[in-house]
Amino acid sequence: MPLPERKLIERIKRAARAPSPALTRGIGDDCAVLRPPRGQELLVTTDFSLEGVHFRRDWHPPESAGHRCLARGLSDIAAMGGEPLAAFLSLALPADMPQRWVDRFVRGLLKLARQFEVPLAGGDVAQSPTGVLADILLVGSVPQGKALLRSGAKLGEAIYVTGALGASAAAIQQMRAGKKLRPTQNRAHFFPEPRIAAGRLLRHRRLASAAIDLSDGLSTDLSHICEESGFGAIVDAESVPVAKGATLELALHGGEDYELLFTAPPRTRVPEAIAGVRVTRIGEIIRGDRVFLSDRQGRRRPMPPRGWEHFR
Description:
By secondary structure, the protein is of the alpha+beta class. It is 28% helix and 27% strand. The model has no long low-confidence stretch (mean pLDDT 93).
């Protein structure tokens, strides 16, 4: 059973204590007090991590569940080219949850938080009637008017992705088939690395015209850029960087890769690696409102969004 609410909050407060120039007041008051950097706009994002949907206790160690919870929000900040300032965690736990599981969940979350120097500044705890519900809220900042948006893609621009795709979906496929996986066998799934540094450089060097993080699958997330920008796209199947152990289908539609998908003007010299992460050109923005997949012979077929979508 978890500790009583006040003791649990105090335990998390002690574990989360870390100095931050942006955080004037953290856990302990009704609200946190943040001091945004001068000349910056605030970025705010929130993401659920639900037991049975985003993680399973029989699949994921508690540290992985906590890490993945925070990684979801950090990846959104990365996609906007921003810097994380503070995190807020609302955590609902069933009454029979061992306190040791809670401690390890928080430990995994805070380890990633310290890596990116983002303080856990507040949140809430509550009793859940069934299962674990964790809602992470991230506050970040970006220079005024410089945020990378989904709506900036232009006709004829190239489409790029960071890293390799499909590893997380491959892990889920294996575990659904009954295979037990250790985190060391697929770190991309159990401990994904938010691309904060890559997003920052894309924005700072003015390399990207539009960007999004790959949380729901390439086909779905590319469709968001196309919808917001008012164009279509064509993806070269041979160019998609498929992760080891994955398939093209998983790379296109699997999701939870937490890589960055971005567009850039054709004359922009996009390096082969950004912040130590490989960058691959996979397609082009075209007229219309449809997304196509092109094979080795140049034949096109429609690529509708078949990634993750709740309630579908």
